Amino acid sequence: MSVTDAGSNNTADDAVTETPAVVSQGHHESPQQRHQKEHMATWLLIAGDGVFFALEIFFWFYLRTLNVNGMWRGTLCTTSNPCTDGLGNPITHAIEKASPSWTAAVAILIIASAAFVWIAEVQVRQGDSRRVTTPLLAVGALLALAAIVVQFLQFQYLPFTTIDGAYASVFEFFMGSNIAHFLIVLMIVFGAYNRSRKGIYEQGHWYQVHLIRLFTVWVAFSATVLALIAIFLG
After folding, report:
1. DSSP code at position 77
2. Do residues 117 and 216 lie in contact, with contact meaning Cβ atoms separated by under 8 Å?
3. Residue 89: helix, strand or coil by DSSP?
4. pLDDT value at position 20?
5. Which residues lie below 8 Å from residue 232, measured CB to CB, with a gap of 6+?
6. How many angstroms separate the CA atoms of 28 and 41, rounded?
7. What is the per-residue pLDDT for 100?
8. CB neighbour burial string for 80-113, b if at least 16 within 10 angstroms, e if fewer
């Protein structure tokens, strides 16, 4: 073997042994660094969703104030002076408001779901075992599922359809928004339950539960505000 060959082999061996060290240094962060980045990302997600939430409220009050031809809820529609729905059918009476019982039940269920997730976070921070936190997260997921089911059931008992004026359209949009957010909550809380069941949140690994709690509380807050608006300011 020549000196050149030996030198090239030594260089290749050095590159093989040095490369893993360079890669490992570039792809590993401390738990604190990961938590800080994920915490910021969660708040950015909430902030973006907050813009959407503000638009929902704006649409409600804008259309309610505008009340073109009395068609917010059809309060000016009579037999002698009928209004028309989105398909041109006559409306001769005011559109009945959605039952506040259903609306309140949905809000209460998602608030309870967020509360159980929050309690689970507190328990994880205190170092409790999976035997304590797993049932709490399971209940939180079940309550989110119950909120989805009740919200779907409310569609069956609405005294109006989407085309029956601006109030009906925006209210059903609120309901659809709730379902979309509740599905996200159900997915992430069920994932947290599964990870807790495997003991991943033991030994002080609480930061993921904290992030899930932030988003779940936000969803509960926004859904409650929409419920209060729909019940008292319809």
Report:
1. -
2. yes
3. coil
4. 41
5. none
6. 19
7. 97
8. eeebebeeeeebeebbebbeeebbebbbbbbbbb
- CA 68, CA 84: separation in Å to the nearest integer? 12
Q: Report the distance separating Cα 210 and Cα 106, nearest Å.
A: 24
Give the pLDDT band of residue 116 (cuts 50, 70, 90): very high
Terminal Cα-to-Cα distance of the chain (whole angstroms): 90
Cα 71 to Cα 78: distance, rounded to the nearest angstrom: 12
Dist CA 84 CA 72 (whole Å): 12
pLDDT at site 5:
52
Distance CA 10, CA 35 (A): 42
3-state secondary structure of 171: helix
The sign of the CA dihedral 165, 167, 169, 170 is: positive
User: What letter would DSSP give residue 69?
Assistant: G
- Residue 15's pLDDT is 43
Q: Do the Cβ atoms of 151 and 104 come closer than 8 Å?
A: no
- Contact in structure between 223 and 107 (CB atoms under 8 Å): yes
Sign of the C-alpha dihedral computed for residues 39, 201, 109 and 152 taken in this order: positive
Q: Give me 67's structure tokens.
A: 């009340």
Contact 168, 162 (CB under 8 A): yes
pTM for the whole structure: 0.84
Cα gap 153→157, rounded to integer Å: 7
Is there a contact between 166 and 64 (Cβ–Cβ < 8 Å)? yes
Location of structure tokens 């929902």: 56
List b or e across 121-156, with b for residues whose CB sees 16 or more CB atoms inside 10 angstroms. Answer: bebbeeeeebeebbebbbbbbbbbbbbbebbeebee
